Amino acid sequence: MGGAAPIVAQGLNHYFGLGEARKQAIWDLNLTIKRGTLTILMGPSGSGKTTVLTLMGCLRDVQEGRVDLLGHPLRGATEAELVQLRRRLGFIFQAHNLHESLTAAQNVLMGLQVHGAGDAVKQRHAAAHMLGLLGLADRMDYLPANLSGGQKQRVAVARALVSNPEVIFADEPTAALDKESGRVVVDMLKTLGQTRGTTTVMVTHDNRIMDLADRIITLEEGRVVKDTNP
Questions:
Q1: Which of 123, 160, 221, 223 makes an SS bond possible with 90, Cβ 3.0 to 4.6 Å?
Q2: Strand partners of residue 130
Q3: With 70 as the cut, is the pLDDT of residue 169 above it?
Q4: In the 3-class helix/strand/coil scheme, how is the chain assigned residue by residue?
Q5: 88, 70 contact by CB (below 8 A)
Q6: What is the pLDDT of residues 89-111, one digit of tens each?
Q7: For 18-75, what is each residue's pLDDT tens digit?
Q8: Terminal-residue alpha carbon distance, the chain
Q9: How far is it, in rounded angstroms, from Cα 165 to Cα 73?
Q10: CB 56 within 8 A of CB 67
Q11: Which of 227, 181, 229 is nearest to 29 (CA)?
Q12: What's the average model confidence in pLDDT over 191-211?
């Protein structure tokens, strides 16, 4: 778990709205996320968890302060630079965002194909392997309409992990999953950190998986109020 920290935020402020309606959502946030760790962001609704996640994941522009992701400053980065960075990331959202016209395996293959052309046979094997790890070996050729909500979410997880990303950003990834399936997913994220140095930052309210975290950061009204491993 050595090496440079993959995520560093310094003096981060963020605002929504304009003029008199402008409201500060994040206040002077300073965080360093170590490589290979599983970090959970928690806090009440409106505390800024998802805003922090999207700022770190270059899905939202940095307005004030600094975020360095994999050694690259995000503020002022060009769209081409951000595209290259996003190819090194994995994203898991509560809304699974699957393509309804593609099978489970084809949806997972998309997670590889955004990274460019590769050996098609190897890609199919990788997709099948990842779906198998998540208990979906017998659902590879199913369309999303024929999958349960939990199965769809596991397909979305497989799509995010199949490219072996360096950093994974996950927003409520276990919300649609039962306890066992949720732990399988988070156990995989934990193992990727230990074996490959993959770094995971996760927003969750799921108390069933908190014991798997290396670090839990609690936010309230845009500020860090508790940090188990600063």
A1: 160
A2: none
A3: yes
A4: CCCCCCEEEEEEEEEECCHHHCEEEEEEEEEEECCCCEEEEECCCCCCHHHHHHHHCCCCCCCEEEEEECCEECCCCCHHHHHHHHCCEEEECCCCCCCCCCCHHHHHHHHHHCCCCCCHHHHHHHHHHHHHHCCCHHHCCCCHHHCCHHHHHHHHHHHHHCCCCCEEEEECCCCCCCHHHHHHHHHHHHHHHHHHCCEEEEECCCCCCHHHCCEEEEEECCEEEEECCC
A5: yes
A6: 999 987 778 999 999 999 999 88
A7: 989 999 999 999 999 999 999 999 999 999 999 999 999 999 999 999 999 999 999 9
A8: 16
A9: 19
A10: yes
A11: 227
A12: 94
pLDDT score at 4 = 87
Say if residues 154 and 175 touch (Cβ distance below 8 Å).
no
What's the one-letter identity of residue 220? Answer: E
Please say whether the beta carbons of 186 and 213 come within 8 A.
Answer: no
